[in-house]
Design brief:
Length: 421
């Protein structure tokens, strides 16, 4: 029973972070309306979040076993809840920058804690893959809930109204509830310790030594490119809906929830496909399919004119088709994460997760900045066409990733991405 309670606590921790991490697109849109900042400055919120994640992950991830995974997650949730309380109390763009800095610090601690705990709660690669994808699927459900939650507080008649900041009272309460649940769980962390976890220098050396493994650096390039694509989509889709598809602010946020819904459905359902084909074949088909969706849907967004009677039943078709790229994008990240972690001993999982978080954060920041620059200088359609470049590179890195995986262990027909353990 305690194991399932612990899994529930890990999943809910991820849901809370999903809501806040992926609110950056909504907050960018609302900051431009409420605080009068331009696109370039607003896009810095991604920088405050992701660079903080990268720096903190490098500094603490490899020796987090010294702190304890459960304790680290409790600290992260406490800091996150406090930052949420500041938003309605001291509204302003500076406070928003502080919020995303705290989100970055907290998520660096929480993700390493969650991913490393998965290794402690599972005993084989299949179980690891199933639990990883379940929790990542819950993450995308959190993103979906977050879009609707934020849009419920946006004033449709006056998007600049600061009433949308009241959502942070509810999010602070959610943090408190998850803290109570996590505090009631027991987690045996003894398997995460080895000779390197006793000192700070030894832990940092262990993280750096991972770079000596070709499997690790090929994986990191793949993860970097994937997150570059996903974050550019998720961050700028509300603005794309608003400025290119001419949808109102609240509706732009709501209809953008199709993307995380598609991601959640794809991650929770990918296990059935993986029971019938190798993970490498599936991921290649997914990347090629993503390119097809982009090429087919973006032309539908050209020449859209504003309409006073716009609604869900007469919105441009591109608003519904383009976010479906999430169905194909969904399996990539949890599958490659599970493959690389399953190939490493459990004491190395914290250090490896730290590297995953660092390169994911850097990829997210770069993707958002590139999209922001192209969006500002040209338009949102051209900005999303750029995603075809990293998609092509992902196909290349997946080939080398599979080759290195086969060298570490014999090829497995299934990584195992089902919806429950």
């Amino acid at each position: 029973m305690n194991r399932y309670r612990t899994i529930a606590a890990l999943a809910l921790t991820y849901v809370v972070f999903a809501i806040l991490l992926n609110s950056v697109g909504t907050v960018i849109l609302q900051s431009m309306a409420s605080f009068g900042v331009d696109k370039t400055r607003a896009s810095l919120l991604e920088l405050f979040k992701d660079l903080t994640i990268a720096v903190v992950s490098f500094g603490v991830a490899s020796f987090l076993p010294l702190i304890g995974y459960k304790r680290a997650m409790l600290i992260a949730l406490t800091l996150l809840g406090g930052a949420c309380l500041l938003m309605p109390l001291w509204p302003g763009f500076r406070t928003t920058e502080l919020l995303f800095t705290c989100i970055g610090v907290s998520f660096a601690l929480a993700k390493v804690g969650v991913y490393s705990s998965i290794g402690l709660l599972t005993t084989n690669p299949g179980a690891h893959g199933r639990l990883t994808s379940t929790i990542e699927g819950m993450f995308m459900l959190g993103v979906l809930v977050g879009n609707w939650l934020f849009s419920a507080f946006v004033d449709h008649a006056n998007p600049a109204n600061l009433g949308w900041l009241n959502v942070y009272w509810w999010l602070a309460g959610a943090c408190a509830a998850v803290i109570l649940l996590l505090a009631s769980c027991e987690l045996d962390e003894s398997a995460a310790h080895n000779a390197h976890t006793g000192t700070l220098s030894g832990s940092l050396v262990e993280m750096l030594q991972l770079f000596a493994r070709p499997l690790v650096y090929v994986f990191l390039i793949s993860a970097f490119l994937y997150v570059l694509i996903e974050q550019s989509f998720s961050t700028w889709l509300p603005t794309f809906n608003n400025e290119i598809l001419k949808l109102p602010n609240a509706m732009s946020i709501q209809i953008a929830s199709i993307l995380p819904a598609a991601l959640a459905l794809g991650r929770l359902g990918a296990g059935q496909a993986l029971r019938r084909m190798h993970w490498y074949v599936l991921l290649n088909l997914c990347v090629i399919g993503m390119g097809v969706v982009v090429l087919a849907s973006l032309p539908l967004a050209r020449g859209v004119l504003p309409r006073a009677d716009i609604g869900w039943f007469n919105a441009p078709i591109a608003a519904y088709v383009f976010p479906l790229v999430g169905l194909l994008m969904a399996p990539i990240y949890p599958v490659i994460n599970s493959v690389v972690l399953s190939a490493l001993p459990k004491p190395s999982h914290a250090a490896m997760t730290g590297l995953i978080v660092i390169f994911s954060a850097l990829g997210g920041t770069l993707g958002s900045r590139i999209t922001a620059i192209v969006f500002t200088r040209s338009n949102g359609i051209d900005a999303f066409y750029f995603s075809l470049v990293p998609m092509s590179l992902v196909l290349v890195t997946l080939y080398f990733f599979k080759r290195e995986t086969d060298r570490v262990r014999p090829p497995e027909p299934v990584v195992g991405v089902a919806t429950s353990d």
